[in-house]
Amino acid sequence: MSGNTRRDFIKKAVAGTAAFLAYPPARVLGANQRVRLAMIGAGSRGQELLRQVREISDAELVAVSDIWPRRFDEAKQIVPGIQTFADYRRVLDMKDIDGVLVASPLHIHARHFLDTLAAGKDLYSEKTMTWSIAEAEQCLQAAKRSDRVVQIGLQHESGGPLADAKKWIGDGIVGKITHVESWMSRNSPHGKGQWVRPVPSDCTSQNVDWKAFLNGRPDTGFDAFKFLNWRLYWMFSGGNITENMVHQIAWIMTALDLPLPSSAYMSGGVFSEKDGRQVPDTIAVTMDFPNDVVVTWQSTFSNSRYGLGEHILGSDGTIEHVAAANDMVTGKSEERIQYFPEEVNRPGAAALTGQTPTGNHMANWIDCMRTRKTPNAPVEVGYRSAVAAHMANLAYRQKRRITLEEAKAVQPEF
Ligand SMILES: NC(=O)c1ccc[n+]([C@@H]2O[C@H](COP(=O)([O-])OP(=O)(O)OC[C@H]3O[C@@H](n4cnc5c(N)ncnc54)[C@H](O)[C@@H]3O)[C@@H](O)[C@H]2O)c1
What we know:
- The chain has helices spanning about 5-20, 45-55, 70-80, 90-95, 110-120, 135-145, 160-170, 210-215, 225-230, 240-255, 360-370, 380-400, 405-410, and strands at about 35-40, 60-65, 85, 100, 120-125, 150, 175-185, 265-270, 280-290, 295-300, 310-315, 315-325, 335-340, 350-355, 400-405.
- The protein is an alpha/beta fold.
- Strands 14-13-12-11-7-10-9-8-15 form a 9-stranded mixed beta sheet. A 6-stranded parallel beta sheet has the order 3-2-1-4-5-6, with helices on both faces.
- The N and C termini lie close together (about 10 Å).
């Protein structure tokens, strides 16, 4: 497909779904009425979300949509009796559904996001909010035009450590913050590529609605490996930036109340997972923010020693948030957040350990569906973290530092 045709297609695809401007009214929920939910995309994450919802007593899982019937059997093992649909639009047609959980692959999020709002449903959409900056803009506008409750699956926004970090920064004990360093590292056994899923025998062109999966991408014939391993290809994914950095950049942007980055640079490559994937496994991102803040994020898939974390570096103190790192004393992994004063500017001040318990992100959405309050990871957080993530990937793909204005002007390419 030529560049122009591709661009036309993207415009039409998204414009088609965004065409519904008059949102139907939501069902009015009685105080004792259970919230009725449906899901689009019941794969690996979708099934985790089904289990999360199952634990919430005032919510009921009614229907699931997927383009591979195997997922119906899997969903029924979690929620016996759940209704199943091959076409997600049939789910959106159901008048008595209050909210929809979207856990489809990244390149279809925007379509499912826009159509869910257009159908008048509240929305829980997995991260990253969209595959491109243009789509992020459209979803943000659509959410602002509607009165629907939108929660993005950035669950660390409901975490206790974020509340602790915000409090310490708000209290002024960190001082002027000029740099945040963050990292995320993993490893896998030799010969087993990170993320790679084997293809089961029922993953065939007869069983899978390949056209629906492509969502307008050029069709080079059914490819079961790509269908299952969409994370490895730019056409469907943003790689580890949209899989993992997005969680941390959202967390950092919320903690420091940062606007969009002014520029981004990303180096790295496919250095350890030479299995034909397009998205890099070794990454170093630098993001400049207005008001003198630099955020760095580093990641590898071939060393897991330091797990995942953030260091917020201030003139008066340091916030250290680490998760899944090897604890050298006990050998156990854990998440913790601590504050350490800078002796030169806060002599004699005490170190602190965060104590705020982590909230239930799913329950927060369902609660907000009743109260109509803003959830912990609203569309603005989804938007800002998506734009930051796409800026990093655009810089990598264009092999140069990219500004926000330049990134916004880039037409998405397959
Ligand atoms: N928040 C988190 O911590 C977290 C963790 C893992 C994954 N995720 C996100 O969840 C999403 C799904 O990831 P996954 O690993 O579950 O992928 P997956 O491939 O296992 O599942 C996606 C499902 O969507 C279905 N699907 C594809 N196209 C569809 C369409 N047009 N209509 C309906 N269903 C369709 C597929 O058949 C599949 O069952 C991704 O955006 C990923 O980033 C979030």
